[in-house]
Specification:
This protein has about 110 residues and is α+β, with helices and mostly antiparallel strands. The protein contains two helices and four strands. It has helices at about 15-35, 95-105, and strands at about 35-50, 50-65, 70-75, 85-90.
């Protein structure tokens, strides 16, 4: 339940959807990376092409515990039908915007 909501009140559907998405992505990170993940924050990333937004994603940031090479993972779903994207913070991936850009470039 979100804070400051009276007992018995149904939560906002957007809050429930966000919580389910975060839990789904946390599980995806843990399974794929074989480590424990803890949700840190959500960040909106916009990719621009010639001044126009071509991609807008909410990227969820997770701290990793027990991973041999990375301490942070970025995860998001491109759409409800598409499998989640999980990108580790390492090498040239220094933030959520780099993670989204890397997936976009890899798909072309």
């Amino acid at each position: 339940m979100p804070p400051d909501v009276p007992h018995g009140t149904l939560p906002d559907p957007a809050f429930v959807a966000d919580a389910l998405t975060i839990n789904y992505l946390r599980h995806a990170v843990e399974v794929r990376q074989k480590c424990t993940a803890r949700f840190v924050e959500s960040v909106v990333v916009w990719e621009l092409l010639k001044g126009e937004i071509v991609e807008e994603r909410t990227v969820h940031v997770f701290d990793l515990h027990g991973h041999p090479e990375a301490t942070i993972a970025y995860a998001w779903r491109s759409s409800p039908e598409v499998q989640s994207n999980v990108v580790l913070r390492q090498g040239e991936i220094e933030g959520p915007d780099d993670a989204v850009r890397a997936v976009i470039l890899a798909s072309r």
